[in-house]
Amino acid sequence: MKKLNKYTPIDIWDDPYRFTCKEIMEVIGESEAKVLYSSLYKHSPKKKYRTMSLKTVYKDCDTEKYVFELSDGKCIETVFIKRRDGGTACVSTQVGCSVGCIFCESGRNGFVRNLTPSEIVQQVVLLRRKVNRIVFMGMGEPLFNYDNFIKAIHILRDRNGMNFPTDGITVSTVGPVEQLKKLREEHLKIQLTISLHAATQAARNRIIPNMHIYDINDVVNGALSYAERHNRKVVFAYLLLQGINDKPSDVRQLVKWFGGKNVMLNLLEYNPTSNTQIKKPAKQEMAAFKQQLERAGLEVTMRISHGSKIKAACGQLANKYNKIIE
Ligand code: SF4
């Protein structure tokens, strides 16, 4: 019996960015699908498809910030960070976010909706820039939009289209445990960054309140298990906050978890938002925290933030636009 297609040609012409090339082939045939697919990703398509509208809202020598308006009028942001031979696209996966990190404006306004695979993919395509890294680090928690996030990666990697290399893709997540396990089993060797931000359950509950249902040890072990299975170094991001997660006992716990493991610890400086309850430690205290970890043999980097002048914490810009349009 002939297999019925889930999609029709109208679906394809209406929004082709939601499909892999194989899905399009099943509807319009191999040769036509290949021509269409390559025109979507390799050149500017002649036909006008239903795309998001793009506004450039900030540009300096190294960073460009864009706000995309979606078909329902909601806004998301995408950042392009220039490198010598191209750049990194930092893309969003949700409008708003349910995770509620205390340092983040997206968390403050809550979750609105998941982005579709097409809306995720188009953030990279519509930049019209040479992108050689994609980081899922914009607005939203990618693993809470798991299926659409994975589908978007398959579309971006499709060899008939953008053919983006898997090891150029990074997902940054707070580490919901079941989704981490699922990601471990995917045949996708993407880079994993865990927003850990604490060495105790109590501190993590304070910094990422809506993740309190997950045991911090399970999050760490889930990520270490991913590193082992895919033979990939996992990055743990740790935003240093004075009096909350910068104690000697925190150093000891980090060393206990990560000593001898395929891990890099990325210490981050707090970039002030409207939350006045938290502040960053003094520069010397941050340097001392880093030194103690390094002395114990951990690989550590510390990024000093330049973001405050452009409101670089995820979601801050798009939130401004969402308020305007509400
Ligand atoms: S930092 Fe990321 S995970 Fe946390 S609330 Fe903001 S968007 Fe969500």
TrEMBL record:
Domain of life: Bacteria
Domain Radical SAM core: 83-309
Keywords carried by this UniProt record: 4Fe-4S, Cytoplasm, Iron, Iron-sulfur, Metal-binding, Methyltransferase, S-adenosyl-L-methionine, Transferase
Regions crossing the membrane: none
Annotated Gene Ontology cellular component terms: cytoplasm
Cofactors: [4Fe-4S] cluster
GO function terms (MF aspect): 4 iron, 4 sulfur cluster binding; metal ion binding; RNA methyltransferase activity
Entry-linked Pfam families: Radical_SAM
InterPro entries named among the record's database cross-references: Aldolase_TIM (IPR013785), Methyltransferase_A (IPR040072), rRNA_lsu_MTrfase_RlmN/Cfr (IPR004383), rSAM (IPR007197), rSAM_sf (IPR058240)
Subcellular location(s) of the protein: Cytoplasm
Keyword DNA-binding: no
Any single biological process term in GO: tRNA methylation
UniProt-listed PROSITE patterns: RADICAL_SAM
Name of protein: 23S rRNA (Adenine(2503)-C(2))-methyltransferase RlmN
Origin organism lineage: Bacteria, Bacillati, Bacillota, Tissierellia, Sedimentibacter
